[in-house]
Amino acid sequence: MAQGLTHLNDRGEAHMVDIGDKPVTRRRAVAEASVLAEPATVEALLSGSGKKGDAIATARIAGIMAAKKTAELIPLCHPLALTRVTVEIEAMNGVSGLHVVATAETVGQTGVEMEALTAASVAALTLYDMGKAMEKGMTITDVRLVEKSGGKSGDFLRA
Amino acid sequence: MAQGLTHLNDRGEAHMVDIGDKPVTRRRAVAEASVLAEPATVEALLSGSGKKGDAIATARIAGIMAAKKTAELIPLCHPLALTRVTVEIEAMNGVSGLHVVATAETVGQTGVEMEALTAASVAALTLYDMGKAMEKGMTITDVRLVEKSGGKSGDFLRA
Amino acid sequence: MAQGLTHLNDRGEAHMVDIGDKPVTRRRAVAEASVLAEPATVEALLSGSGKKGDAIATARIAGIMAAKKTAELIPLCHPLALTRVTVEIEAMNGVSGLHVVATAETVGQTGVEMEALTAASVAALTLYDMGKAMEKGMTITDVRLVEKSGGKSGDFLRA
Amino acid sequence: MAQGLTHLNDRGEAHMVDIGDKPVTRRRAVAEASVLAEPATVEALLSGSGKKGDAIATARIAGIMAAKKTAELIPLCHPLALTRVTVEIEAMNGVSGLHVVATAETVGQTGVEMEALTAASVAALTLYDMGKAMEKGMTITDVRLVEKSGGKSGDFLRA
Amino acid sequence: MAQGLTHLNDRGEAHMVDIGDKPVTRRRAVAEASVLAEPATVEALLSGSGKKGDAIATARIAGIMAAKKTAELIPLCHPLALTRVTVEIEAMNGVSGLHVVATAETVGQTGVEMEALTAASVAALTLYDMGKAMEKGMTITDVRLVEKSGGKSGDFLRA
Amino acid sequence: MAQGLTHLNDRGEAHMVDIGDKPVTRRRAVAEASVLAEPATVEALLSGSGKKGDAIATARIAGIMAAKKTAELIPLCHPLALTRVTVEIEAMNGVSGLHVVATAETVGQTGVEMEALTAASVAALTLYDMGKAMEKGMTITDVRLVEKSGGKSGDFLRA
């Protein structure tokens, strides 16, 4: 049985669940993703930004725009009006790679975890796209929720 | 310097590179992603498919549809006409989680790595969405290219 | 004269009408569509679901996702945040075919008839697409509003 | 078993089938839809076009634009470059209603039935939207393929 | 320094700014665009509307639909639920060309200048597309905000 | 009569014209747009790029992404697979403002004027969006085709 899967009804069929009775509250989620790459690729992506070019900016904007497309991509997500989206990208510590942190906020009836995760994922995919001519073996890893607040299911903070 | 980043011109500005002179060839890419989750969540997602429901089917379809949106999501990707997309999802061996394998093919002037990676990522995000009421801590990991063939840059096969 | 057509102004020009003064209320609409097909096609589509595969699930998800695209497809529809969408598909009684019922809900300033009708239509088109290799002559029929509630224009219930 | 459903693999899983080996040929499909409505509604929609306004033009354009969105709406449709789309709308003979005929063409590896059917459906839905302030009970019926040519599966012409 | 550019943070990075604390108010913006063209082209476009055809209607509908796509096109725009959109197109006085006026309204937390400007721009681009077989040299000019009301930054009225 | 407007049939109805018999050739178009703004705004936008931030990069990427959406925005445009898109933005000479030049290329059956014009327009709209907190009165002007080559209708070069 599909017990616990709220996106399936009692016959196991997918549906977009009813949120019409949930209160309108301010909601926030933060997600992260890491892109593991060779030092030369990381260096090229970073120097391709700042004074030199658009590499990091392109990934940041791709992530922000993807957050707005979440309900188009994830079949059972409710459409919602995001009130804030940020994507930050920087070199990882101790590992060769880039770290993406995406924050999404809304004032609405449902949470924004999927928006934050989608922004982080698409920013990471865009970094892969920018760097793939140098290194096809880059790996995106640790795409996950960091924190979440504002819903009735309680706050979440990754341990 | 942005040396090696083909998506930036010599001033470091993002552009969609010229592929007009590249030959039309048959191209194929395979990508994977893993979703690490508790056994109970994996079990619910799997049993929510097969005879019981739509969980895995929803993720598979989300991945296939996302492959078709790749050029909308990744700023410098060329639009292309995919000739085949498949997404397979099954339980992981030795680890509690689900493994996604996405294959994309086209007959065209540029490769389909990003289409395969986007399909795998969005299928994984959809699995997260389906299971998040049970476990917000699921992690998507090892999103990466498995193999690629058909372009002038040579074939790629993950070691 | 285009009397009675609220989507045209007094010069007959299309516009998206002003709903800014309408109250925010909970709104709901149910629509249906029927897909007439040979028994063998109906059987294949149904057995291609449940324990055997994704046919019905694919149509259900297509309908849910299409509901979210209504304002992109229907030129003068207002964008709105759906709070619930369901699509149910089952064999027809007494006739060889499949029956689709779509329900859409929102809390907003305008009704969701078009969302329910779009979901039902696209689910039916997807069933056609799934079955067309077997039977190109399938017909979609009786796409219509079943009930509507929540707006100032009064409730509607098909006789 | 899902025998005959080409969009499912032998495990019953949805996939976008491989068309990479199919020849590039000129392909054409014609589809129709009927919108049954009261004479007053039909009259308002028709007079809201021609010299008086945009009603029919809006539906025609919605149908043409929807044809271009077919691969976004129908999960397993291949994206393709339409070379021609027309939508014609006129009063029905002997029945009170409007008749929609949509034609789609491409030069490619797969047929355009779904594009023609989607154009006809969305044009019909838009006529409903334009007229629904007058008559919520309008019914869309007989959405079906009229003819198809250009593929290896042979031509189709509705009897 | 990027002083004054609210869409950049203090490191110069693009973000979608936080509007979660802004009051929900009724907001309205009007924008215009002009399409300069030869008298024969203007005449063909105008006569291609009214009783003769769909030229102006097509541009009007394109503008209305584009308003709904603003947040997809302009990277840092917040998605919002438009409550009204109109696009008016008429011959210019004293100059050979067509004048577009677009009005957008919402009840929300942020302004609709970009929606009005996008509607006017895309209506103008569509007029260009309709007329380009006659005159490729048409120029779109004076795309600008005419008035804006409803936000805390004060009303704007072009002098 | 709508003589000369190829997007209308002989009844004045909009259609997407048949290009199925046109040869596949390499096609290219260049378009421009100017954004007139106060020196302080121009300075902020320019310094918000390069080493300081993402302003110009955001507009460049918005233009490139919009080129890929042209057939979604302009109702009668054929969808096509762009093989190259570039957007360049720099300070104007002798006038206070920013100049946008967009280039689009394809190998196909129809021209890419609308893609280049759409890229230039949306890049200009994005510059407006980035700078509007400083100056709501900015004007976008001289949006026009600069050159075009590759189609049977002959090359175009603005005098």
Automatic annotation (TrEMBL), chains A, B, C, D, E, F:
Active site, UniProt feature: 129
Annotated ranges, domain Molybdopterin cofactor biosynthesis C (MoaC): 16-151
A GO biological-process term: Mo-molybdopterin cofactor biosynthetic process
Enzyme Commission designation: 4.6.1.17
A single MF term (Gene Ontology): cyclic pyranopterin monophosphate synthase activity
Reaction(s) the record says it catalyses: (8S)-3',8-cyclo-7,8-dihydroguanosine 5'-triphosphate = cyclic pyranopterin phosphate + diphosphate
UniProt key word Lipoprotein: no
A Pfam family recorded for this sequence: MoaC
UniProt-annotated binding residues for substrate: 76-78, 114-115
Keywords: Lyase, Molybdenum cofactor biosynthesis
CDD domains linked to this entry: MoaC_PE
Pathway: Cofactor biosynthesis; molybdopterin biosynthesis
SUPFAM superfamilies according to UniProt: Molybdenum cofactor biosynthesis protein C, MoaC
Protein family: Belongs to the MoaC family.
NCBIfam families assigned: moaC, PRK09364.1
Subunit structure of this chain's protein: Homohexamer; trimer of dimers.
Function: Catalyzes the conversion of (8S)-3',8-cyclo-7,8-dihydroguanosine 5'-triphosphate to cyclic pyranopterin monophosphate (cPMP).
Protein name: Cyclic pyranopterin monophosphate synthase
Highest classification ranks of the organism: Bacteria, Pseudomonadati, Pseudomonadota, Alphaproteobacteria, Hyphomicrobiales
The gene coding this protein: moaC
